[in-house]
Every structure is written in C-alpha cells, then in structure tokens.
Amino acid sequence: MASRPARLCRRAYRNIQPQDSRYDRGTAGGQVTCLEFLKAGDTLVVWKLDRLGRSLTNLLAIITDLKNRGVAFRSLTEQMDTSTPHGELLFSLFGALTRERVMAGLVAARRRGRRGGRPPSIDAETIEQITAALDAGASKASVCRSFKVPRSTLIGTLDRIGWTGPVKA
Q1: Average pLDDT of 73-87?
Q2: Tens of pLDDT along 105-163?
Q3: How far apart are CA 149 and CA 143, in angstroms?
Q4: Which residues make Cβ contacts (< 8 Å) with residue 22, sequence separation at least 6?
Q5: Tens of pLDDT, residues 32-42
Q6: Which of 6, 22, 72, 157 has its CA 20 to 30 A from that of 45?
Q7: Handedness of CA 47, 49, 52, 54 (dihedral sign)
Q8: 96: buried, middle or exposed (CB in 10 Å: 19+, 13-18, 0-12)?
Q9: CA-based nearest residue to 158, from 133, 58, 169, 145
C-alpha cells in the first residue's frame, strides 16, 4: 500500500484470491501462505472483505481463527478493524447475521419438505423387515448377511429408531 511506510509491514501480498475448498483442495495458494505467516500481535490488512473470503461464513471462520491466534484484522474499504471496540461490534453483528440467515434457510428448506444431513442408508421398508426378523429371533449377523448391511450401519440404525431387542411374548 503506497500510503503506508514500507517499514511498518513485515511482508506484503498482492491480489491474493480467496481459497475455495471445493476447487483448491491440497493446494497451498497465496492466501494460505499469508495466513500461516501471521503471528500473535500482527494485523492482517486487506483492501476489501471479499479479498479474504468467498462467503460470509468462510470470512467469519478466517477472522475467528485470526482472533484466536491473537492476530488483528483490518479491511480498508469497509473500515473494519477488529483491534477496536467498533470493529469487534461489527464482527459480532456479521456473525449474528450469518447465523440468522443459516437458520432461516434451514427453516425454509424444512417447509419445502427438505431435510438436511446424510440420507438414511436403510429405507423404512427394509428397517421394518429387519426388525421383524430380529424380533423373530434372527441374529444380527444373519440379518446383516441377508440384507447386505454392514453391522455398524445396522447397529446405528437400530439405535436411531429405538429398537431395544426382541419383543418377548
């Protein structure tokens, strides 16, 4: 930055693109190098917030990591400086807004009939057949072989549905 004396900067990086884990896995780009170089007491200065993170969630994760490491953050365009009370307030507001947007998105998805998380590995019909076989006295090992289900998956599914054991008559 031309307006700041060069003696105040330990190292300068130019035009660093934010890393995107979907595309940049395993590569050590300029941003990674820059973030690893910083130590407690340093201040990371960027021209704009979008130079540091691709999304608000990603940006908040990076700034939180910097804060935990004792590194201050300053954005020149948005006039955000986490070393000041005003900057801390802005950072907290960004975090609250992000959490609120995520929760609103999850609620909207649920209203549309979408459910987050990994899809169940055993469908409801198969679970009914498995529990019927187990209630009839079949062993878990034989059920796993018959239904071609890994034992850990069977046990996890039975725990999730609350199956406690064969029904005694």
Answers
A1: 85
A2: 889 999 998 888 888 889 999 999 999 999 999 999 999 999 999 999 999 999 999 99
A3: 8
A4: none
A5: 677 888 888 88
A6: 22
A7: negative
A8: exposed
A9: 133
Structure tokens at 47: 């021209």
Closest CA to 84 of 98, 76, 74: 74
In terms of DSSP bridges, do strands 72-75 and 80-81 run parallel, antiparallel, or are they unpaired? Answer: antiparallel
Q: Which DSSP string corresponds to the chain?
A: -TTS-GGG-S----SPPPP-TTT-TT---HHHHHHHH--TT-EEEESSGGGT-SSHHHHHHHHHHHHHTT-EEEETTTTEETTSHHHHHHHHHHHHHHHHHHHHHHHHHHHTT---SPPPSS-HHHHHHHHHHHHTT--HHHHHHHHT--HHHHHHHHHHHT--SPPP-
Sequence-distant (6+) residues with CB within 8 A of 18 are 31, 50, 51, 52, 53, 54, 58
Residue 38 is encoded by which pair of tokens?
A: 């910083």
Among positive and negative, which fits the CA dihedral 33, 27, 80, 41? negative
Q: What pLDDT shows up at residue 56?
A: 75
